[in-house]
Amino acid sequence: MLPTQCRTVFLFVSLSIVFTLGGFAPRGLPQQRQQPDQLEGIPVPKPSPKRAFFSIEDCRQCHLTPPPGAAPVICRCTEMAIWKKEDKHGLAFNVLDGDRGRAIGRLMSIKGKVTDERRCIVCHSAYIENAEEKHSFKPEEGVSCVVCHGAALEWVEIHGGLRKNQWRKLTRQDKQTYFGMTDLWDLNTRSQVCASCHVGNAEQGKFVTHEMYAAGHPPLPGIEVATFCQAMPPHWESLRAKEERLRRLQVANLAQLLPYKPAEAAFEQTRAVLVGGVATFQTAMQLLAREAQTSADAKDPNGGALDLANFDCYACHHELKSPSNRPRLSGLPGRPGMRQWPTALVTVALKHAAREESEFRAKLADLQRAFDVQPFGDCVRIAAAAKALVEWSSSLAAEVDKRPVDEAAALRMLRQLAELGTQPVDYDTARQIAWAFRVIRADWDPAGAKTPRINQFLESLDRDLKLQLPSRQSGDISHDPSAMLTTRSAFDPASFSQGCRQIAQELPVP
What we know:
Elements (H helix, E strand, L loop, with lengths): L37 E2 L2 E2 L13 H7 L15 H8 L12 H9 L10 H7 L20 H5 L3 H6 L5 H5 L3 H8 L7 H12 L11 H6 L9 H6 L8 H10 L5 H4 L4 H4 L2 H30 L48 H7 L5 H15 L6 H15 L2 H7 L4 H15 L5 H18 L9 H12 L15 H10 L2 H14 L4
Antiparallel strand pairs: 1-2
Helix pairs in contact: 9-15, 15-18, 15-19, 15-21, 17-18, 20-21, 20-24, 21-22
């Protein structure tokens, strides 16, 4: 049975993600040590945590309103109220049963209800293959608490129960490794969770195919994790806000309750941009490597081609006019290439980690050649090149996360982003640069007093790139393809480059 009083769940729900095929184990985390029998007096489940999905009703007992007569500690106990009223993830299942969802199902010849189709439910709620794991879970609740925080029986039962004080003494890694509670305080883990649906994860069965797009599924935009999390809006507190609240409450064991270093709270959103950029790139490469290998291994001669959703959609779906605003980026003319936007923020992370770009550029060039060698690429070579990039990037996010950020570092990043924008870029890459710039600048100059003239440039970028995400449940998340193509067609790389030059001139020289 679930506890009637739970006050310590760390509700850091990310965007539209689901755990479906075993416990979530983000790449790049330290290897699991030999499993102990118990930790802080709590028996460690063997051989592993029991997968269990619960309803939001089991969480609202403690996370809807603060309990009377008790001051909330780790969390504010208002998380459920914010999520249920504001967050679109609670609506994710419902859209499958709407007009668009049913139309997509008909065009894809899906037998039965779209809400029962694994390819759909895997990102719009949770696909539970074993009925014994379902417990109180309701698919219609969408991407709910347990979907992001970890579908495991033990941590749900322990974290707010009689052993909550023992639970609080456990490290975040042990909570994840041995009890199945996903450590969403870890920026790399959080970003991978978000990207598993917003980019794709073939191992978990999450991949929006070209068939789905052709049937009417809205195209997935490039994701900048910090920006997307802010637009949810977040039902959690930033580390700095959490620390300030607990200090006001005069909590004695603050260091034990908040097991993080002070540097993690400073420039937290900037760090989220850097770590998220690397994690998103790695996720994109993992998906590409898996899809290319699957295509290369296909025995059916008609199944050996890479799904078109792996290519840059707008290499084909673009306006036909001369001269064109579309910049010539890379690859051979007339051949669909790879998507460029996932690479946009990697060089900024590399510089912050004091690593050279040469190896990254060389491996990226290998991947580009694999796309160019023949129409629609050579799947064997694409798989090998993408796997090499996955391995190369596996440690970068951790390196970036460990390196502190101060005002000088944030300013260097802003100048680097402005410089990136002066180069020819496509629409999606421009959005990555602009989103990242806005987040880091807000960290570096919260009131906008250091660089007031930049505001007008950012407002112009917002209009041209549609940077404002449809936040909260009132905003429509569906996209009109014709309107989207119009916006993309109107994007002028030269104008964007000029705007970035003007922004660079307004930034102080370090």
